[in-house]
Amino acid sequence: MHTNIETRYANHPADVKNYDTSQLREHFLIENLFVEDHINGVYTLNDRLIVGGIHPVNKALSLETVDQLKASYFLERREIGIINVGAPTKIEVDGETFELAHKEALYIGQGVKDVVFHPSGDGHTYLYFNSAPAHKNFPTKKVSQKDAEVVTLGALENSNHRTIYKLLVNSVVPTCQLQMGMTELKPGSVWNTMPAHTHDRRMEAYFYFDMNEDQAVCHYMGQPEETRHIWMKKHQAVISPPWSIHSGAGTSNYTFIWGMAGENLDYGDMDTVAPIALK
Description:
Elements: E1 3-8, H1 13-16, H2 21-28, E2 29-30, E3 39-44, E4 50-54, E5 61-62, E6 78-84, E7 89-93, E8 96-100, E9 105-108, E10 115-117, E11 127-133, E12 141-143, E13 149-153, E14 162-168, E15 179-185, E16 191-192, E17 196-198, E18 202-209, E19 217-223, E20 226-232, E21 236-240, E22 247-250, E23 255-262, E24 271-273
InterPro entries: KduI, KduI/IolB_isomerase, KduI_N, RmlC-like_jellyroll, RmlC_Cupin_sf
Function: Catalyzes the isomerization of 5-dehydro-4-deoxy-D-glucuronate to 3-deoxy-D-glycero-2,5-hexodiulosonate.
Keywords: Isomerase, Metal-binding, Zinc
C-alpha cells in the first residue's frame, strides 16, 4: 500500500471553544500532505470529504481503495477533484491519458475503477485532491484556467485584491456535490475570504501554496462570535466545519485552493459576516 488516509471526527463548536493551540492543530490542520511516492490525506466526518496530496517521484501511483470506504475500488461510491500544484504531469483514467499542467484541474466521476498518477521528469509532481461521496456518475473532464469561471474581487486598499478561478463547479462541469476552485491574491494583498462567511449547508477545506518557505498564513476559524486561529505553512490544508468562518491573512500574497461538499451546489449560499462583527 502506498496510500495513507487518517480519519478525523466532526467537532461540536462548544467543544472547540475549549481547544488549545495543539488541539486545534490536531483536529483541523493537515500538515504532511506530500510524502514521496505516497498518497496521503485525511477522511473527515464533516460531509465525509477526503482531503489529500499525491506525490509520485520514482514510480506511478494508483488510486487505491482504503479501509474507511469499505469499497472494492476508491471511486465506487465517490467522485474526486484534482488540481495540479506542481510540474506538468499525466493521469490515466480507465486507460485514457490526461495531461495536466500547473494549476489545471481534473474531475473524475463515480464508477471509474483505475486512476494512475505519473511522476514528472523533475520529480516535482504535486497533486492536491478532494473526494466526496457521489450517487451518480458524471464524465471525467479536464478544466484549465481559461475554461474556469473567473471573478476578481476586493481592492488593494483593503489588502484583499484577488482573482477567483471556479474550476470544478456546476457552472463549468457537472458534479454530484464536490466543488473546487482556486484563489490567487495580488501582490500587496494578504486577506482571503474577507468579509468572512459561514455556510451551514456545506463544509470546506483550504489548501495554501504559492508562497516562499519562510512565509506563513494565519488561518481564522470558529464561530463569528468566538474565533480562533491556526498558523499554516506552504502545502498545508485545513478543515473548515459548516459552522466555522474560513478566512486568512498571510505574511505575503499566496494562492489557495478551496473545496466544498454538502447539501447543495449553490456557490452563493453563504451567510456573510461583517469584519466589525467578528470577535
